[in-house]
Amino acid sequence: MEKEIGSIGELEAEAKRFAERLKPRAESATLVTLSGELGAGKTAFTKAVAKAFGVEEEVTSPTFVLEKIYTLPTPRSGAGFSRLVHIDAYRLASGADLAALGFTELMRDPGTLILLEWPERVADLLPPVTIRIALAAREDGIHTISYDE
After folding, report:
1. CATH of the domain at 105
2. What pLDDT, in 10s, does the model give residues 73-126?
3. What are phi and psi of 11, to 5 degrees?
């Protein structure tokens, strides 16, 4: 499914719809990958998802720190996630570099939602992905978002 996004308001509304559909997996963390060129909207989408889950602190790109972990407020009825982990793999050379971030342990927790930017950088060691999202910015200023679930 592909959608066009014309404004930050539309992006926030789309992220809210996406967050409302997410349910924790029974056996592991929920892994969502975000692909797209620089400026495609990966971090903006993550910020909007975090807002939809009630994160009040400022959500910024983890480009230089690689990973940021946000404790989610008391889970919404049925949501069940206790934390959101935002990983930016742009500076990683391979999937082996995820070990330093405690990725294996994070993946064991069904209460964890992981949003991983630049998954192609670490694809060699990624476990099965729950949802793949591709974002793109067009020349006319419209962004597109497509889901592969």
Report:
1. 3.40.50.300
2. 865 544 689 999 999 999 999 989 998 899 999 999 999 999 999 999 999 989
3. -65, -45
Structure confidence at residue 50 (pLDDT): 93
What's the full length of the chain, in residues? Answer: 149
SS3 state at 148? strand
Q: Are strands 131-137 and 112-117 parallel, antiparallel or unpaired?
A: unpaired
Torsion angle of C-alpha atoms 1, 26, 29, 58, degrees rounded to 10: 80
- Picking from 30-44, 51-65, 105-119, 127-141, which range would have the lowest pLDDT averaged per residue? 51-65
Q: What range defines the domain where residue 54 resides?
A: 2-148
The reported pTM is: 0.89
The rounded mean pLDDT for the chain is 89
CB 83 within 8 A of CB 112: yes
Q: Which of 92, 98, 115 is nearest to 42 (CA)?
A: 115
Query: How many domains is the chain partitioned into structurally?
Result: 1
Residue at token pair 């949003």? 115
How many CB atoms are located within 10 Å of the residue 16 CB? 15
